[in-house]
C-alpha cells in the first residue's frame, strides 16, 4: 500500500514468509524499511505481517450441523432461508439437487431468498449481483465478495447443513488469491500490470488477476487521496467518512500485494516505450496497462463560478463539507441528474431550503421518460424540494467571497449558502490525446468486447469507455454504471491473462431517494415508448422501455424483484416483445418462472 506526499512515496507491502530473512527484521521484531532511490526521490518499503485467515472448517468448535427440512419440503426451483441456530443459510433446490450458500448479498445485505433463481445462479433482488449456487462464487456485480458455501447431506429423507459459524455470521467469502513472489527484487519504476484509476474497475481488475493466480507485480495509481471506496454512496449518504465506505481495508492490499499510489496524477502514456509519465516527472514502465480513470464533473461556466461554497461532489471531503455547510441553510442544486437528485433528497430534511435548477421540463426525462420523471418530481415536491425547470444559472453572486445568491436566466434570484453542481461529466482522458490510443470525438476510449484498445497490451474500463453491448447487437455504447465498471475490470483482467473472455453482462443500476429505490436493467437509449404497469401516483410501478417491438430496458419502484427477473431473461438471450410485456408482468405477479427456464412463449 502506498502513501504519497509531495516529498516521498511510502510503500507498505507483504513479503511471503519464505522470502523474508532475519536480516530484514529489526531488533523488536518489526520489519525495517528498505529504501530505494528513484528519480532522485527516496521511497520507503515497509514490510509488515498480515496473516491470512485460516480455513474456518479446521476448527471443530467453529462448525455447526443442523437438520433444516424434509427433502419434500422444497420443489425444484425453490429457495428457503433456514436457521441453523447461530446464523442463517439459503437452501436451494434445483434439478433435484440441494445447495446451501449465504443468505445475504455481500454487497448491501439484500435477502437473496427474495431474489431470482435461474440456471444455477441466484440474482440479488436489489442491485443484480449474481452468485453460483454450487460454489457461491460471484458471477455478476456489484460487490466484491462471494457467498460462503455450506455442505449439504441427506439422511433418512432429512436435509442437513454443515456450516462454519464464522461464515454464517459474516455471510461473505473472499476468493482465494495469489500473492506476489520476489517482490523485494522489483525495480520501483517498473511493474507488470499498471492500473490507472482506483475505482471499481481498477480494483476488480487487480483482484481478478490475483484470483486467477497472477503472482507478478500490480500497481494501482489514483489522483484520489483514499483507497478505493464506494463512490455511489457519496451522493446518497453525504456524511459518510472514507473508512466507512472503503471497498477494502488497508490490510487487504498489503496481504495480497496490490500496491496503491494515492494522489498521483498520470500526465501522459508513452505506448512505444510502455511507460506512464506522472505529473511530478516520475516514470513507470509496464507490461500490461488498464486505463480506468472514470469521468471528470462538468463545472458551471457562468459569471461568479469561482466563488466559495460551490461544489462538484467528487470526494468524501466534498460530500462532508456540503452537509456541514447545508445544515439549516439554503441549498441550490444545479442539474436534475442522478447525483443532483440524490443530493437533493439527502439534504431535504437537513437544509432550510433545497432548490433544484434544471434545463429539461422534468427530471430524468431522457432516462426514465416523462411520466416516471413527473412521478419522481411529485415525490420531491412533497418533501419540500422546489424545482426551477427549463432554465439555467446565469450568475453566482457572492458576499465577502462566499456564495450568497444564484441568479437564473429566467430572472429569478435564489438565496443560496451552498451550491452543488450536477450537470454531467466528461471522460477523464485528456492525458491520452497524443498517446495513439483510439479516443472518439467525445473523449471516450474505444474498446472491443475484451476491453482491449487499439494498442496491444493496453486495456480500458469503466465510465470512460465505449464498448460493444451484446444486448444491443454489439452497438458501441457508454454505460457509466457502478455494476458495469466492476464487470469491465474483470473482463480486462481475464484478457490480460489471454482467456479470450468477451463481455456480455446486462447493465443494471439503481438510485435511492427518500427511502425509496428505482431499479433499472437493460439499455434504453433511444426508446420510443414507455409502457407502465402499476400505479405511478402510489410510486409502485414497472416501466417497460421499448424500441420498435422490443423491450430494451425496465425500471421499477416497489416491485422487487421484477428488474432482476428481466435482467435474467435478457441475460439468457431471450427477447421480451412489446406485446408480451403485460403477460410478463402477470407471470411475475403469479410467480410463474417459465420465462427464465425457456419453457414460456
From TrEMBL:
Compartment(s) of residence: Mitochondrion
One of the GO biological process terms: execution phase of apoptosis
Superkingdom as given in the UniProt entry: Eukaryota
Primary location group: mitochondrion
UniProt keyword list: 2Fe-2S, Apoptosis, Electron transport, FAD, Flavoprotein, Iron, Iron-sulfur, Metal-binding, Mitochondrion, Oxidoreductase, Transport
Sequence ranges assigned to domain Rieske in this UniProt record: 66-161
SUPFAM superfamilies in the cross-refs: FAD/NAD(P)-binding domain, FAD/NAD-linked reductases, dimerisation (C-terminal) domain, ISP domain
GO cellular component, one term: mitochondrion
Pfam families: Pyr_redox_2, Reductase_C, Rieske
InterPro entries assigned: FAD-oxidoreductase/Apoptosis (IPR050446), FAD/NAD-bd_sf (IPR036188), FAD/NAD-binding_dom (IPR023753), FAD/NAD-linked_Rdtase_dimer_sf (IPR016156), Reductase_C (IPR028202), Rieske_2Fe-2S (IPR017941), Rieske_2Fe-2S_sf (IPR036922)
GO molecular function: 2 iron, 2 sulfur cluster binding; metal ion binding; oxidoreductase activity, acting on NAD(P)H
Keyword Transferase: no
Function of the molecule: Induces apoptosis through a caspase dependent pathway. Reduces mitochondrial membrane potential.
Family classification: Belongs to the FAD-dependent oxidoreductase family.
Protein name per the record: Apoptosis-inducing factor 3
Organism: Uria aalge (Common mure)
UniProt lineage: Eukaryota, Metazoa, Chordata, Craniata, Vertebrata
